[in-house]
Design brief:
The chain is α/β, with parallel strands linked by helices and about 800 residues long. It contains 33 helices and 25 strands. Helices cover about 50% and strands about 15% of the residues. The strands form six sheets. Strands 1, 4, 7, 8, 11, 12, 13, 14, 18 and 19 form a ten-stranded mixed beta sheet that branches. A six-stranded parallel beta sheet has the order 22-21-20-23-24-25, sandwiched between helices. A hairpin with a 2-residue loop joins β9 and β10.
């Protein structure tokens, strides 16, 4: 923990401001003030960063490298201040200078280098590794453009590039001396050197990978780990203007652009896989640079290559970084000269893999032709891996060609990345109990029976430092006041709050914390959308990527139904509700974009109908992102986790909501099941098909959405309302949604679960009326949320997968 007093902080800040801007603080813009503060905080971090690295080098402790195409960090200033232990001092010092810290924090651009759950999980994991003194670092891509910015124009999503680096980034440090070369294309020739076959990669295109390092500050423990993101550049960056004829100069520029394209933009698709060459290039680019750099570092500090797997672990976040397996093999074989068996032992012991989805459309499979052309040596290695593996399969499953073909890495002209990831790693984990069971028994059952010991579960988690302490100061204060502050380092100590959940006085306080956060959100909503919402209404929230399986459409249909009921009976006795949505649709995902249009049309219709204005309001908040999530989650009463059972691998916003005292309405999917197990059925509202029922329908059929449409008049009415102009003058605007539900038989069982969902919502209405009981439920949710801290998850990875030594210094 940094020891600095308010006075010294103030002086240091004024000095830093002058140094950077060459002008007096009082005259400067808030942005300059933010920049100066960021620079000062980075200076404070610098020494611990250096010392942490020195320590790692001298102790030689095992290093973990978390390889991920996505890191969704959000803003870093508040996080760094909190973890350095200087947030209050900074706040007070700035106050004396007439600066509001919050105003400066709000100027920081979100670092949005991820699509959703998978990228945010990577960010939470980095925070937990640093806070638990685990030597764990991130490796990814420094996209010039992050996840697109979403604007809503006439009710539809419009994508705008996220130029997050425009104003610079105070947190990153370019490391020119740590550059690597990544080789694409060319050919491989074999040479016989002293009786040994050598593989020589020639005529390749070299690309320069330049790392930018961001410090990851642990919570009050002086540990600062590193997130290393790679940027693509041409090997020679100098243009000699005079020696180029005009044509050559333009060609050179064109070439420069094509190289830089590799780290230009994050693919905005989650769950929908497309075999795009540029994405394959991105994957090999960062994986090759990452593996080369960790091995170079390891050897420079005297590491023995034969002990690599004892000294480092590489974790691959979904299949996207799977090329780390053949890349590590290539280095061990071609550069270190190890025999295949030794290289394979080291590689499989080093690498571990997490699966994040069972949706088959998300499975990465690269066309062999493309793969071979772009990565000729890597392809040879994958072929060899496949051959040896298929021989093993053949020995176990003699004559069972179909099974072997199904399990193979290379088949049907494709490279199957999930199979390669399982074969080439020593651990394969799912992200919630149900998800892991489905992987083992359904999606990867053949692989599971062949390698039963590799499979394990690691239920996801979230960092309580960002999602409680930083983002909900009022609740944190109340918790400290009642149970002390041990939960900060030991989040399961939140359990101590359970007895207070019954205490009327605490319930009152809990209610006023929520009320305050709701007022703040109401203000934000008014500023963003011009919609006035009532902070005494139930804030009912669904924020996440827009996807058919997450069933925002189910939520829409019940709002439409409730609206119908209120029109029929304007005096219907309901607790007023504000329905809040947020989330981005993949730009090419038509149904998801239509869903956004539907939400916005429902909002327009309902919000402009004076007959219901005291009872319901609907809000779609544009440009959902980490910093907006922080504001919404602390102000939520009801958390919507309504995916079709079996489809949501885990979910992580469910955990954030629970930790902030929201009541979950949920299907028994992903980690919702484990939340239910923690809080019991009395403190969560469950509805819908079970996983067994869903799997049975998928297997045996028997579901007809049209029958439900015909037999349930409530459903018939709302479905007809999609097409009769009630919500939009263009009757065909929501035709795709109508067809999805009726013509194409409702793949995600929206109509099937409708009735039970309505019942569950009525139960919420009923429960909310008893203010004290409701607060008791909220308190119980908070008290049981500690197990969902990513600290617990990371400790499980550390002991169960990585085998990293635990340094408990900070945990006592
Ligand atoms: C285009 C290829 C592709 C495929 C899948 C891109 C991204 C994905 C991800 C696996 C999607 C994802 O983010 N999955 C989510 O991961 C979270 C963290 O484990 C889980 O909580 C979510 O349930 C899961 O949907």
């Amino acid at each position: 923990m940094l020891t600095i007093d308010k006075h010294s902080f103030k002086k240091a800040y004024e000095k830093k401001y002058l140094e950077i801007n060459g002008e007096e603080l009082s005259t400067g813009s808030n942005y300059k003030k933010y920049e100066a503060l960021g620079n000062l905080v980075r200076d404070y971090v610098a020494e611990s960063w250096m010392n942490t690295n020195k320590k790692y080098n001298s102790t030689g402790e095992k290093q973990v490298y978390y390889f991920s195409m996505e890191f969704l960090l959000g803003r870093l200033l508040g996080d760094a201040l909190l973890n350095l232990g200087i947030r209050d001092i900074c706040n007070e010092a700035l106050k004396e200078l007439n600066i509001d810290l919050k105003d400066l924090e709000d100027l920081e651009q979100d670092q949005g280098l991820g699509n959703g759950g998978l990228g945010r999980l990577a960010a939470c994991f980095l925070d937990s590794m640093a806070s638990l003194n685990i030597a764990g670092h991130g490796c990814g891509i420094r996209y010039k453009y992050g996840f697109f910015e979403q604007k809503i124009v006439n009710g539809s999503q419009v994508e705008v590039p996220d130029n997050w680096l425009r104003e610079g980034n105070v947190w990153e440090k370019r490391k020119n001396d740590k550059r690597e070369i990544v080789k694409f294309g060319g050919e491989v020739i074999t040479q016989n050197i002293n009786g040994k076959i050598k593989f020589l990669h020639i005529n390749y295109e070299p690309i320069l990978a330049v790392p930018y390092d961001t410090p990851i500050v642990g919570y009050e423990n002086e540990t600062v780990n590193t997130l290393r993101l790679w940027s693509a550049e041409t090997v020679s960056n100098e243009f000699d203007f005079s020696s180029f004829s005009r044509g050559e100069f333009l060609k050179a520029l064109e070439y420069k652009n094509s190289v830089e394209a590799i780290s230009q933009v994050l693919y905005p698709d989650d769950t929908q896989y497309e075999g795009k060459m540029l994405r394959l290039k991105q994957q090999y680019f960062f994986v090759s640079a990452g593996v080369q750099s960790v091995i170079r570092h390891f050897k420079r500090h005297g590491g023995d290559i034969l002990e690599l797997d004892e000294k480092m672990a590489i974790h691959i976040n979904d299949t996207h970084p799977t090329l780390a397996i053949p890349e590590l093999m290539r280095i061990l074989l071609d550069e270190e000269g190890l025999p295949w068996e030794v290289a394979w032992r080291i590689t499989t012991n080093t690498i571990s893999y997490t699966n994040h989805t069972i949706l088959s459309e998300a499975l990465e499979k690269w066309p062999v032709d493309m793969f071979k052309k772009l990565l000729p040596r890597i392809y040879m290695i994958v072929q060899e891996i496949n051959e040896r593996y298929c021989t093993e399969l053949w020995n176990s499953y003699i004559g069972q060609w179909d099974k072997i073909a199904h399990m193979a890495i290379l088949a049907d002209g494709q490279v199957r990345m999930a199979n390669l990831a399982v074969v080439g790693s020593h651990s394969v984990n799912g992200v919630a109990k149900l998800h892991t069971e489905i992987l083992k028994k359904q999606e990867m059952s053949d692989l599971y029976y062949f390698y039963p010991n590799k499979f394990n579960n690691k239920t996801n988690g979230i960092t309580h430092r960002r999602w409680l302490i930083k983002s909900n100061k009022e609740l944190t204060y109340l918790l400290k006041e009642t149970i002390g502050d041990s939960f900060i380092k030991h989040p399961t100590d939140l359990e101590k709050f359970e007895i207070f959940a019954k205490n009327k006085d605490v319930q009152e306080k809990l209610a006023s914390v929520k009320r305050l956060n709701k007022e703040k959100l109401a203000k934000t909503i008014y500023e963003m959308k011009g919609i006035k919402v009532n902070p005494d209404s139930i804030f009912d929230v669904q924020i996440k990527r827009i996807h058919a399986y997450k069933r925002q459409i189910l939520n829409c249909l019940r709002i439409m139904h409730l609206y119908n009921e209120l029109l029929k009976d304007p005096n219907k006795d309901i607790v007023p509700r504000t329905f809040i949505f947020g989330g981005k649709a993949a730009p090419s995902y038509y149904l998801a974009k239509k869903t956004i249009e539907l939400i916005n049309s429902i909002a327009d219709t309902i919000n402009n109908d004076p007959r219901v204005s005291e009872k319901i309001k609907v809000v779609f908040l544009d440009n959902y992102r980490v910093s907006l999530a922080e504001q919404i989650i602390r102000a939520t009463d009801v958390s919507e986790q309504i995916s079709t059972t079996t489809k949501e691998a885990s979910g992580t916003s469910n955990m954030k909501f629970m930790m902030n005292g929201a009541i979950t309405i949920a299907t028994l999917d992903g980690a919702n099941i484990e939340i239910r197990d923690e809080v019991s059925d009395d403190n969560i509202v469950i509805f819908g098909l079970t996983s067994k029922e869903v799997l049975d329908y998928y297997k045996n059929g028997g579901y007809l959405s049209y029958d439900i449409y015909r037999s349930d008049i409530r459903i018939k009415n709302v479905i007809d309302d999609l097409m009769n102009g009630k919500y939009h003058y263009d009757n065909n605007r929501f035709k795709a949604i109508y067809e999805n539900l009726i013509t194409y038989n409702d793949e995600f069982f929206v109509l099937k679960d409708f009735d039970d969902y309505i019942r569950a919502q009525e139960k919420i209405d009923y429960l909310y009326r008893d203010k004290y009981k409701w607060q008791e439920m909220c308190g119980i949710n908070i008290a049981h949320s500690g197990i969902f801290s990513s600290d617990r998850t990371i400790l499980e990875y550390a002991t169960g997968i990585w085998g990293t030594e635990l340094v408990y210094k900070n945990l006592k």
